[in-house]
Write a structure and sequence with these properties.
Layout: E1 2-3, E2 10-14, E3 18-24, E4 29-32, H1 55-68, E5 77-82, H2 93-108, E6 112-117, E7 122-128, E8 133-139
Parallel strand pairs: 5-6
Antiparallel strand pairs: 1-4, 2-7, 3-4, 3-5, 7-8
Length: 161
């Protein structure tokens, strides 16, 4: 998503996912993506609309949307958010996503002005694309509330064999 409108705000919530916010100050255009996985592992018969969940597609879509609205590739600046480790046993998805974003931006010559990545908390990102301003808030999950489950009342007779 990209916009030049001053009254537009993009918001997303991230765990191990990554959001990259891009801004071109001269053109007053900005955009944000949100991808789930760094690596592209196509599934048979996969809907092409779902390709944006992979890093490389999400990044290309964002850059193209920015350029379509007057942004220049050589003027883009980036911020990276997300990449948390949300659950044990899921591997290092957040780390791989973060490293993909850093590597992609470095290869494309897009400077990273800041990042808030890693850890184990979810994040809520708000981005004002035309101004290039972002706010990141950690979301602390409340501890699970114990639920007491009572066994059903015993009724009727039981026949044992």
């Amino acid at each position: 998503m990209a916009s030049t409108a001053l009254d537009v705000s993009f918001t997303t919530v991230l765990g191990s996912c990554i959001a990259v916010c891009l801004h071109d100050r001269g053109a007053a255009v900005g955009g944000m993506n949100h991808f789930l996985l760094a690596d592209y592992a196509p599934l048979a018969g996969e809907d092409p609309q779902l390709l944006s969940r992979y890093g490389v597609h999400a990044m290309e879509l964002l850059i193209n949307a920015m350029m379509h609205r007057g942004g220049r590739r050589d003027h883009l600046k980036a911020r990276i958010y997300g990449g948390a480790s949300m659950r044990d046993g899921l591997g290092n998805i957040g780390e791989r996503n973060t490293e993909f974003a850093r590597t992609f931006l470095r290869r494309e010559g897009i400077p990273v002005l800041g990042e808030e990545v890693g850890g184990n908390a979810a994040r809520r990102i708000e981005f004002l694309p035309a101004l290039g301003r972002a706010r990141c808030k950690s979301i602390v999950a409340a501890p699970p509330i114990p639920v007491r489950i009572s066994p059903p009342p015993i009724t009727g007779e039981v026949e044992l064999f």
